[in-house]
Amino acid sequence: MDRFSDLPPEVVLMEPHRFEDVLQAVQAVRERKTVVLNFGSMPPEEAQRSADFVSGGVFALDGHQERLGEMVFLFAPFGVDVSRDPGSSAEP
After folding, report:
1. Where are the alpha helices (H) located in 4-43, listed in sequence order?
2. Tens-digit pLDDT profile for the chain (92 aa)?
């Protein structure tokens, strides 16, 4: 039995300022929360490293990601369906 199956869906918005802050994003996805990360407050190199780290962690949890903007990503746990309006582009 999934210990998180009776929890209501939750979306967490995060704007990390340093790499250490993104560890919470992976933990949130592990807890079956959907996370929107805005990397706009980080230097570009650190933002890329952080996005790669979270992407890897979410992939290992069988979750998925969606790019919402230039520096904004959505990370969803397994079982959460994310759909995009057919009229919108995949890369904003």
Report:
1. 23-30
2. 455 566 678 999 999 999 999 999 999 999 999 999 999 999 999 999 999 999 999 999 999 999 999 999 999 999 998 888 876 655 54
Nearest residue to 75 via CA among 26, 17, 40, 31:
26
Within 10 angstroms of residue 73's Cβ, the number of other Cβ atoms is 20
Q: How many helices and strands (H and E) does the chain possess?
A: 2, 4
Structure tokens at 69: 């903007």
Sorted by sequence, the CB contacts under 8 Å of residue 78 that are 6+ apart come out as 61, 62, 63
pTM of the model: 0.82
Beta-bridge partners for 13: 36
- Euclidean distance between CA atoms 30 and 28, whole angstroms: 5
Closest by Cα among 63, 57, 85, 90 to 76: 63
